[in-house]
Amino acid sequence: MQTTRLYLDTARLGRMSGRAQQAHLDFARMAGEEGASLFFERFLQEGSACWPASTRSRFPGLTCWQGIGPLKQSLRKLAGSSPTLPVLMVNRSAQLMRFAARLLFHPCRNVLVTDLGWPPYQEILESEGHRAGRLITPLAILALVCDRQATEDDVIEAVRDRFLQAGCDGLFLTAVSHLGFRLPVERLVRALESVRELRFVVVDGAQDFCHASADLSNEYCDLYLASSHKWLQGFHPMGLGFYGRQRSRAMIETVLAHVLASGELDDPLLRFTMQMENATLDGETETVNLIPLFTCQGAATDALEQSSPPPTILPLRQKNVVQAASVAESNGWHPFVPGEPFQTGILLLQAEREATQALAARELRQAFAGDGIALTSYERGFVRLSMPAAAWQPEELTQLGRALRARA
Questions:
Q1: Which of 261, 281, 305 is the last residue of a domain?
Q2: pLDDT tens, 19-44?
Q3: What is the mean pLDDT of the chain?
Q4: CATH code of the domain covering residue 337
Q5: Are β-strands 110-114 and 170-174 bridged in parallel, bridged antiparallel, or unpaired?
Q6: Lowest mean pLDDT among 49-58, 157-166, 257-266, 385-394
Q7: In the sheet where 239-243 sits, what is the strand order?
Q8: 202 forms bridges with which residues in the sheet?
Q9: Taking the CB of the first residue and of the last residue of the chain, which one, N or C, has fewer CB atoms within 10 A?
Q10: Is the pLDDT of residue 115 over 90?
């Protein structure tokens, strides 16, 4: 198997950014030299500002760390979130999704969901809805989004009609699907709010944050789910939950306190970061993996210092999609490129040859890895390519075309 020369798997797990790498390496060195000493504890709470210049020069990769509060503020800036609204950090994203589902079914009797959602999240939502005795109204919208003639107004009308017909009062939307299709989530929410009370809105932004349209400044949802290990490029998995509106803050905090006290939400990183931020660390918390905090801060620093903010890079990624789709089409693959309003920096392809469609997803991924390309693969010959943040180089398109032709 060749070394990876073309990494197109960002939608699953991003490559670690430069400062995230430096933070990881210097944390490992500090852990080896200091362990869990009082020196380290003070650094964790106060950041590198508590160090003398000589220590900062020993561990330069950690100088961006200023504590939990500043990390959350960096993440708010990237999400366009209000500096007064909380951010939750968890080790396990599934735990955060369970909490989101609990929040949805606390005030809502009937929640509308689409078929763009990530299947494991959909399963969690269905399980919690059944437990709470609430209704879930499904809406198949993928075919409409994939129709190149469809407009945002067409999608909004379809969602609004189903929402009204079923008598829904809650909403779970996926801003960017795992297959790469984008929804106009803010416009959808505003359209539904104009015709009926919308009690609670959760948006899955795992593929949206630092990639497409994440901007919470207009407070259009109540909870926004994201992560640090995909497009932000913190690499070490960490789930993020952004409070989206002032109006629902008290309710979220009430439910959060209940599920933490009952043990229904059991995530050591969540407890630890909340105690650190509130200066209530009791010394009895579960041992926590802290590496995601430091790599996340490094990646966030990189993202904030870019000359172009992450969402402004989207048009370049979309141009890369068009070029890659052309290469794929001429080499035996069918590209699924939706209309412009629904496009992202992700390209979904399907092999035209039946023999390739018969390959197991793992076999297909390994085949491309043999050509030095990392991508995501699915059954029935589907592959997903996450576009780079820089324009394609001619040799990269040549490499991609050669690999696609060999696996067509």
A1: 305
A2: 999 999 999 998 888 776 767 788 88
A3: 93
A4: 3.90.1150.10
A5: parallel
A6: 49-58
A7: 87-90, 239-243, 223-227, 200-204, 170-174, 110-114, 135-139
A8: 172, 223
A9: N
A10: yes
Non-local (6+) Cβ contacts of 362 within 8 A are: 377
- Is 333 inside a domain boundary? yes
**Domain range holding 79?**
68-305
Query: Same structural domain for residues 299 and 179?
Result: yes
pTM of structure:
0.95
Q: What pLDDT is recorded for position 281?
A: 61
Block residue for tokens 């960002």 = 10
Whose tokens are 């960490």? That residue is 238
pLDDT band of 105, cuts 50, 70, 90: very high
pLDDT of residue 1: 57
Same domain as 265, residue 325: no
The one-letter code for the residue type at 142 is L
Check pLDDT > 80 for residue 357: yes
